[in-house]
């Protein structure tokens, strides 16, 4: 039984949590099966050659790992516990690594073990069809002459790296295997910029919408961006510390040259985080703007009501006065106006004067 | 007389505070008695055997502690001061440890003493019946070859650990006793994820409720989540530093292997804290959303009032004009319209025109 | 002339500030005289005896200080500069200590001088009669074999310590004099928990009030709690650093054993600060709740107005129509309805239909 | 050409900025000339004597600087570049110091150069006539046996120091010249407490105003305090680091005794900053209170409108019904009520009943 | 293919992002071409001479770089990849530097490589015509005896430096080449003060506008300033760390004298950041003020409506009563008032009394 961690970016119903208190390092995938079958690909390369192999039994990898060339083993799909266990025991991975690979709600981290360095981080991709962020967990194990990587889906996130690997004389081929690990990390971080672009575009659309009509749907979108921003931040912030730890790590597994490149990744992560922070401010500003717009509209509605009501209510009252039925015959004081020669025009003029006065009053108050 | 600390998660009336200035390390339970009787269980184990004993007199433990095997003594219930005192003097615990065990409003901490390491932390469980978080204090004393743990209630939080202890060859049986202390800490932290799940579910329910009808009860629920989040954060944040201190502690009581596992607990706590932070942001966002929804509704109400009033008030005024009783016989200027052939239809048409003009005006303003 | 610092918790009119630029270390009490006469009490004790003395001339203390036993001199009242000066010169206190003792708006701090350690902190007590926090400054000077303490009022804050001192074999009697200094600090910090309890109770009362009637007084109380919280935080936060400095201080004046106890005080202060922070969040939440409640009420008021006005304004208009005086004799088109057989009932039915339609409309909008 | 920095506390039109890219250390005063003529005063003193001299040519200072006594040269007015240049070249000041002295928008800092320590900070004084904060820049250069200080205006900020200097046997006369530098810094910081007092008084006045009538002017005052607080904080925060740097500075120019006094200044600055922070919270709280008060008033206004309108609109409708002119002679169904015996009283009673019912409804809703 | 980073200050449509996963250090300009042709200028100087050269082939620079004099090569325009590549290979720049120069959305940073120090930062200029901030990326490479700088446009930002370079005996000519790098950085930072001035002016204009008429456009301007402030902060904050790193860098490329000047730049950046922070607070305060003003106005509108409606609605009701057509002949109880002698005047007086009472009520409530 594996212990499930919390993966909050999805609102899909999560699998029921296992009982707390189970042993750490127990291995069971907690996500939804996302591939038909676990696919294991091996790439063995050095400056002069590159071999590619689709692996069915992990033992097939042994000759490649035992020779001095660099080896990359990439695993797609995490549901087949048996197969994964065979890989882990083959590489002699620490139980905590095993647990982290299949518990796909991990926050990003970097941990050193005796024989390897372990990275876990989150890949964000924006699917244009569903108009929403998709995220999956990427785990990378960097050993002395191999990189072992895991992803949940069978999407080709790392296709560009394969392309670059196939170029003879490229940096990927020349540098030691830690450069490959860097390239994988860099690819994931590069995807963050696309996610940022999408969030930025949404913010601009909301902003434009606010100054146009201010329909109610904007409120939903502001809230959604706000939630996405909060969760995106949460998933990326710890990565800064993880990469920083990798840069300062005294282990031989990472060469000085690669550290230089990792510093670049580190800068990019800081840039992503800074941009997220300013987006967060901007979304708050958008919400304030929405509320201010709403208040402005309410104000305008109230002004219209007040102007119309304030002008006509007194006039209607005057009309009501002269609609009373006091009997002029009973007393000379009973509504003598009704029988005067200029009574009606005078009353109309009185009404007009009141209306004009009111309009002047509103003009002066700048309500008109 | 024990000194009472503040336990703010409960809104139940607290026991009256003792006078400040009493001696530290004085021992008296400040909570409500939660078990019939203090239950002491002893588990003595090594790789080859496990003995279980229900202890009535603490002296029964002496032979188990003096042999080289590992021993876990677990105490449920904190109200029987005499019994607890016998345990403490048996283990020679520092007065400050004694005070912290029974003052159940402690914030989480880890402290090293000459002969032991002391952890205090808070267990959160979500009771489905009462729909609320229940919390109790867990204290763990890690000695050279024993673990001594205390809890307030008789709930079986640590049942899974007992199950794992009973498995021959399991890590709990093989590793030294500090691994057991780790397992207890890990179990408590694992429960935080369940509590987080519950808070997350509540947030999603509120969110759904906001976009449906927005009944007033939502306001209570938003406020309750906000309070729960604030208090949960307060109870967990200091744990980060406590576990970190345990990892860096130079004492021999914690082995390097266990430090590796504690690092994992540390990561989980960070993850819990980060998730709490994003929940906090999301609850604030929910409140803003609630307010915006309210303003939107108010706006709609005002528009309906304004439209109806603005259309009918002028019409009523016109009707009022022709309801005046100026005497046509007294003057040809007194309401001659009343005697014209098309007077009535013309006035109706005038009214209709005004209404249509108003409706156009509102259409143009996009109020309709 | 002493320099006055700012003491913002009181809203009483402060004494006029002295001109800036006066010499530091000049001695004049800036507060209001709070006792009739400065009271100096001396307690000389060791494991075997305790002597108590009411001191009028500070020279009476000399024999007690010169013998090896521990001595506590406690001063109540700060207005008699001459008397204080005699004490200070007797103990050879640094001018900055002298200034800090009488300038009672100090923020908490700990400072080491050659011959002593100086603590200044603020005691908070909640007076049940006036329903408000009272605060006064406590200064503690820890020398090699004496503790010298000052307070502004003659309240018996430290009575429990005297009680414990009188118990032969108690820790206070056994441990060196720095343990007494710790006990004084601990007593002050323990009072913070009572103050916290009071603030917490007020928050709960406001919360209950909000869900009951929401009278205007709540706004005052929310604001008052908010101000109290802000000022309480300000007065306590620096204490954390002060106690931390005392723990790490290399001086011999504080023994390792007492450092252990100071660590406990440190933990309590952190707990007070954390609780203040969560109270601050909760008060903000309460204010938001108040505003939301207000908006909800306004919404309800507007709905009632809108429903009534929207139903009756059109009906009144119809009644107005048939109240017009167009002369039916002047034209067959002038209000022929008035002379129809079913005119009046038909108009009433029309009105009823309009009212029912409106009510249905409001039902559909869930305003009713 | 000097480069102008930004001085945001004044809203007066600033001098046009010089083009960026000019050489650092170029010397030209950027403020408004505030004195007729640059006044240079020299005070040469030691324990036994004090000489005072009004300097016209800086060369007059040479004998005083070359003798071993302590010398303080104080300059009032910064507009006369030639005179200032002669002083700077006389003291061989670094170009960056020269630039900072005349660019009067500096934020506070402390910098060490080979032959001196340079302080720049801001003096705040509250002018009672104009009811606003006035600020000017104070620069202090501490050399081996001299202090050189600059201020913009000819106000007598440092008069109390002169008074203390004239007292034989005073600390200022006995201690080395760095104590004088400390005294100048302390005087400036002491003025911050007066400024704080003024802000605090304004906050209390606003608070009192809020609970009295809530006139619109309060909004201006809240905003002004908010702006003043923001700018005051900005001008003082960096001073903390500057003084801290001075305390830790290894230079011989500051003696250990003076470091002790600087630590006191440091504590005062922290206290000023903490108080500013709590003022900031309180001003935010005041603004929230203002808004809540406003909402409460709006609510009350709306209730009055709603109550009056809701009671009278239905009554007016009923009156409107019986004001219709349906011809009773045309049909027995046309308004037969008009001819009944009790028709009028019955209609009045009906109206009264409706009014009473409405009032009961509002009572129940607690609107009355 | 170069990898594009996010440049959020422009709202112009960005170029499509390249696929993540491309090799780092690949070189392609991501911005819009801003100059006709890449312009390369060389300035070779020492204390005694200065040579200026417009370079077409980078090889022309070799003799200048090989002699011991100082050399500045400034490049305007980044679109001609071939030309840039020739420069980079000539100077043997690291691939990551190459990538950063053309990816013009970099956040500010300073990085040391074996043979050079690399700065990237952002120049802000305020164009008075378009009333908006323009920004471009400046890259500076400091080598042993050369400075290589890049900018996107052909604007003459560094003209003042050229002017100062041409002055024989000026500091730029005397000091080593790192002083030139400092001068470039200082010029960029000086421009920030102009940008700050512009933001400050806008804030003052908005403030003035708020107290005058409060037109809707202010909301847009507040929002724009808020966005500009957020993005400006994001672009400048990391610069602090970059300059700090340069100051502490142990490399020989920066002399101790220049470090002193860099410390000055560092102080300026802190000042810019502090000012930005206080502007941010002030803009938030402005928005609150806007909302409060709006609420005040709404309150006023509602009061006018309520006063008019509340006065006239009851009067209209009374007029409506006496407009009813109950037949006086059918019953003595049917509207006998209509036939009384003083009926009409009495009803008018009643109405006037009600109106006066209402006005008194509003006076008492201070609504009038």
TrEMBL record, chains A, B, C, D, E:
InterPro entries: CorA_cytoplasmic_dom, CorA_TM1_TM2, Mg/Co-transport_prot_CorA, MgTranspt_CorA/ZnTranspt_ZntB
Family matches, as Pfam families: CorA (PF01544)
Its membrane topology: Multi-pass membrane protein
Region (Disordered): 1-26
Superkingdom of source: Bacteria
Keywords from the named record: Cell membrane, Ion transport, Magnesium, Membrane, Transmembrane, Transmembrane helix, Transport
GO molecular function, one term: cobalt ion transmembrane transporter activity
Location, primary (coarse class): membrane
Biased segments, Basic residues type: 1-14
GO CC annotations, alphabetized: plasma membrane
The keyword Nucleotide-binding belongs to this UniProt entry's keyword annotation: no
Location(s) in or outside the cell: Cell membrane; Membrane
Role, per record: Mediates influx of magnesium ions.
PANTHER family per record: CORA FAMILY METAL ION TRANSPORTER (EUROFUNG) (PTHR46494:SF1)
Family: Belongs to the CorA metal ion transporter (MIT) (TC 1.A.35) family.
Protein name (record): Magnesium transport protein CorA
Species annotation: Fodinibius sediminis
